């Protein structure tokens, strides 16, 4: 089951990456935005496409013509299936193209970095760090969704909003939300009570579902996804307290003896 979930996660990542690729380059453009914008006058070299994305870019138009009614996700899945069935000899052509472009990319990147000032290089490094952190966060959330992690409990206000939020012409969602917040503030405690009770029930639901989910994660060997439980402070026993007091008294006595000895000298 663990292998199946891992495979499902990789498949989701592949489809998601392909969709971002199509949105980012419009089939004919670049797969990534340069990092150099606003940092140096020269444009940062673009990372070359992988063998699969080369195949995707090259065949997207043909697949779209054959499947004009298909959504982007459906189209990407069809192309992914075609890539899986492609003979190794044909995949190698795309891989060789990637290797050639990768070598050229490394040379261009080295030349680009050589022209940066220390401040520009530091800014570039920080931008990359933030981008990678954001990507890791997105992947972690997507993995938890694939693994079926329970949704967090809703508050009384959240439940109130979900029951009363309706799209209205001439008013933005933000303005509507503000209206509901003001209305919630004006409710009496007795009027809020049904929503607060539903929120308490949802907390119970969440606790029970999390227990089951975490037990399942342990079975799958994913203890890294288990919430860390704060350790309770150790209670002092009578014996421990007595030992501590004895140590303090001994320390005071030693200090007094040392002080007396110094005064005699």
Protein described:
The chain is mainly α. Helix content is 72%, strand content 0%. It contains nine helices and no strands. The protein has helices at 2-25, 51-66, 72-85, 88-114, 118-146, 156-164, 173-186, 189-219, 238-264. Helix 1 (2-25) crosses helix 5. It is extended, with a radius of gyration of 31 Å. The protein starts with a helix and ends with a helix.
What is the H-and-E element order?
A: HHHHHHHHH
3D shape = extended
The helix/strand class is: mainly alpha
Quote the average pLDDT: 80
Query: What is the CA-atom radius of gyration, in angstroms?
Result: 31 Å
The stretches of 5 or more residues where confidence is low (pLDDT under 50) are 1-8, 27-38, 230-236
Number of helices: 9
Helicity range? over 70%
User: How would a textbook summarize the main sheet?
Assistant: none
Beta content comes to under 5%
Distance between the termini: 80 Å
How many E-type strands?
A: 0
Please summarize what this structure is.
This protein is mainly alpha-helical. It has helices at 2-25, 51-66, 72-85, 88-114, 118-146, 156-164, 173-186, 189-219, 238-264.
């Amino acid at each position: 089951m663990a292998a199946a979930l891992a495979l499902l996660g990789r498949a989701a990542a592949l489809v998601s990456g392909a969709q971002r690729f199509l949105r980012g380059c419009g089939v004919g453009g670049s797969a990534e935005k340069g990092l150099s914008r606003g940092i140096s006058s020269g444009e940062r070299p673009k990372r070359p496409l992988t063998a699969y994305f080369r195949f995707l870019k090259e065949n997207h138009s043909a697949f779209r013509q054959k499947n004009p009614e298909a959504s982007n996700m459906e189209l990407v899945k069809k192309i992914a299936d075609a890539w899986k069935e492609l003979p190794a000899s044909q995949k190698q052509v795309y891989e060789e193209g990637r290797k050639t472009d990768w070598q050229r990319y490394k040379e261009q990147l080295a030349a680009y970095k050589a022209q940066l000032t220390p401040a520009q290089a530091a800014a570039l490094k920080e931008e990359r760090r933030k981008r990678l952190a954001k990507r890791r966060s997105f992947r972690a959330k997507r993995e938890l969704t694939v693994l079926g992690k329970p949704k967090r409990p809703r508050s009384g206000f959240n439940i109130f909003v979900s029951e009363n939020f309706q799209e209205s012409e001439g008013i933005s969602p933000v303005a509507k939300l503000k209206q509901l917040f003001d209305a919630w503030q004006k409710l009496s405690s007795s009027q809020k009570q049904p929503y607060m009770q539903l929120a308490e029930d949802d907390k119970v639901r969440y606790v029970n579902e999390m227990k089951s989910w975490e037990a399942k994660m342990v079975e799958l060997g994913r203890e890294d996804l288990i919430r860390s439980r704060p350790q309770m402070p150790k209670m002092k026993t009578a014996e421990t307290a007595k030992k501590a007091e004895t140590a303090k008294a001994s320390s005071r006595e030693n200090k007094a003896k040392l002080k007396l000895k110094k005064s005699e000298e």
